[in-house]
Amino acid sequence: MTAARPRAEDFLELVNRARRGGLKLYIGFAAGVGKTYRMLEEAHALQKRGVDVVLGFIEPHTRAETLALVPGLEVVPRRQVEYRAVTIEEMDVDAILARKPAICIVDEIPHTNAPGSKNKKRYQDVQELLAAGINVIGALNIQHLESLNDVVTKVSGVAIHETVPDRFLKEAVQVVNLDLAVEDLLERLKSGRIYQPEKVPWALDHFFKDANLATLRELALREVAESIERQSETKARTAAGEARGVHARVMVCMSSYPPHAETLLRKGSRMAGRLSGDWFVVYVETPKETPERIDAEAQRHLLGNIELARELGAEVVRLRARDPVPALIDFARSHDVGHIVIGRSAQPWWRQWLGRSVPLRLLQEACDFDVHVVAMAKEPRS
Question: HSE of 108 in the Cβ direction (CA atoms, 13 Å)?
C-alpha cells in the first residue's frame, strides 16, 4: 500500500489553525525510500505558492536525483563545529530562529548533535523551532522510534543508537508513510541510487536483508496507521466535547532494579499509544530502598530507567510505602488507570508463592483492572 501523496496546501491548512509551529513527518522503513526527495518536492511546491520556506538541514547522500532538487531553494548555512580536530556541520538553530521562515525543512531528525551544541538531539532543535512558531517538515525512519528500539534490534540484529521519543511522533499534525515494495528498494540499492557502489555488498549482507526490510516495512505501516487513527479519535472526541477516555490510561510498575526495564517501558509506551491514553511509570520506594540504603548500581539503573520513561512520554511517579501492592492499586484507582503492566518475576514459582511476589499479588488483588504480564528473556546484570 502506497500512501496517497498529500497536496502541499494540506499541511498549510493544518498549521494555519495552530498557534505554535506545526510538524509534518515523512516516515520510512529504510534509507532510500524517498523521504528527502519528497520533502524537497514539497518545498518547491510551497515556494511556488508564495510560501516562505527554507532548508534547515538536508542530507542528500550524494544522490543525483535528490541533489538536483536543492537549487532554487533557500539554504540556511550550517554551523561549523570543531570536535577532536574534525569539522562537523550541524543545523544552525539560532540562524533559523533569526530568519524565522514560515516553514523549515529538516532531515535526519534522530541525529545526535556534536558536543557543545545548543541541544543534544536534532529533534530537540525541531521542538525549539516549533515553540517559536516555525512550521517544520521533517523525516525519520521507523527504526529510530524509541519504543520500537528493542524490537528492531531483535529482528535485524543491528543496534540503533539514535532514537526519538514516541511523544515527538505524536506532536505531528500530519504523518506520511513513504511505502515502497522491498523488491523495488533492493533494486534501487543494487543500481547505486542509495549508496556508493562499494557500500552495496555490505548493506545487502547486513541491514538490507529481505526479512529485515519486510519487518521494518510492516512496523512503519502499522505505526503510521495507528498514528492516523489516534489523530482521528482525538479530533472526534474534541468535536463531540468529550474528554479522553480514562480507561485508556496505562500504569507500568517498576521496581528499583528490574533487569528488563527497557522492554517493560517500551511495552507500556506502545500500549498507551494504541489506546491513545496517558501513561504512568510508578516506582514504590520501600524503607529498605531509600536513597541512603539502596546500592549505587541499583540507583544508577533506577535513574537511567526514569530518564528513559520520560523520554518515552510517561509521567514518572515515586511513591513511598512499606507494601508496594496496596500503594500501586490505590494510585491506579485514584488516577483512573485501566491497564496495569508488570514484568514477569524471575523467581522460581515456589519462591513466588512462599514470598507472595508483587506480580503475583497484583494479579490476585487488582481484580478491577486489566493486568498485563510482560514476558522477557533472561539477561544478566550489566
Answer: 15
What pLDDT does 379 receive? 47
Task: Report d(CA 193, CA 170) in Å as an integer.
Answer: 32
The span from the CA of 45 to the CA of 37, in Å, is 13
**DSSP-derived secondary structure for 115-168:** TT-SSSBHHHHHHHHHHTT-EEEEEEEGGGBGGGHHHHHHHH-------B-HHH
Does residue 15 belong to any structural domain of this protein?
yes
C-alpha closest to that of 171 among 118, 234, 246: 234
The residue among 224, 239, 254 that closes a domain is 239
Helix (H) or strand (E) holding 52, with range, is none
What is the distance between the alpha carbons of residues 289 and 256, in angstroms, rounded to a whole number? Answer: 8
Contact, 268 vs 316, CB < 8 A?
Answer: no
Report the C-alpha gap between 197 and 191 in whole angstroms: 8
pTM for this predicted structure = 0.74
Residue 298 is placed in which grid cell? Answer: 541499583
pLDDT tier at 223, thresholds 50, 70, 90: confident
Query: Which is nearest to 166 in space by CA: 144, 193, 192?
Result: 144
Same domain, yes or no, for 145 and 288? no
Measured between alpha carbons, how far is 336 from 250 in angstroms, rounded to an integer? 9
pLDDT-derived band of residue 18, with 50, 70 and 90 as boundaries?
A: low
What CA–CA distances, in Å, run from 44 to 33, 59, 175, 193, 312? 19, 17, 19, 22, 34
